[in-house]
Amino acid sequence: MSVISIDKDVQALTLTFVAEFDASVERVWRLWEDPRQLERWWGPPTWPATFEQHDFVVGGWSRYHMTGPEGEKSRGWWTITAIDAPHRLEFDDGFACEDGEPVDTMAPTHGTVTLEAAGDRTRMTVVSKFVDAEQLEQMAEMGMEEGMRLAMGQIDAILAENR
Length: 163
Fold this sequence. Notes:
Number of helices: 5
Structural class: alpha+beta
Shape: globular
Strand order of the largest sheet: 1-2-8-7-6-5-4-3
Strand content: 35-45%
Radius of gyration: 15 Å
Order of helices and strands: EEHHEEEEEEHHH
Low-confidence stretches: none
Distance between the termini: 18 Å
Oligomer: single chain
Mean pLDDT: 92
C-alpha cells in the first residue's frame, strides 16, 4: 500500500496523509488535474466519485458526488485557493446539498497537497486543516482516515496502467 503515514494532530487541528508512488511528480499531479482520473480514486472503493465540474484554476470550483453501495449520494465541493503546478495545490473542501450548493451546517476544511520527488518515486502529502477539534473528531468518526487510506490505495492501479 502506498500510504506510509497518517497523523491526526488535535492541537494543530490537522489530519495528514503521506503516500509514495512509483511515478513522476508530473504524473501524480495529473491525478488531481484530470477529473476523469480524480474520480477513479477520490473516495473509497465502495463510494466512487463523479466530478460534475472541475475548474482546475485558482478560484475554480469542483463539484462532485460519491455514490454509495445502495445508490445513496454524498455531495461535495472544492474551491481551488492555490496552485503551483506540479508541486502544490490548496483547496477548501465542503459538503453540498442535493443541488450541489455548499451546506451551511458544517464549515469547510482546507486541504493542502504537496508533491515532491523521493528518489525515483513521488511523495504526496495531503494535509486537511479543520476549524476546531469538534470538526476534526466528527470527520474522523465519519471515517475520513480509513476512507482516505482506501482512496489513496487505488492510485497505484491507475498509475500502473500508464507505465
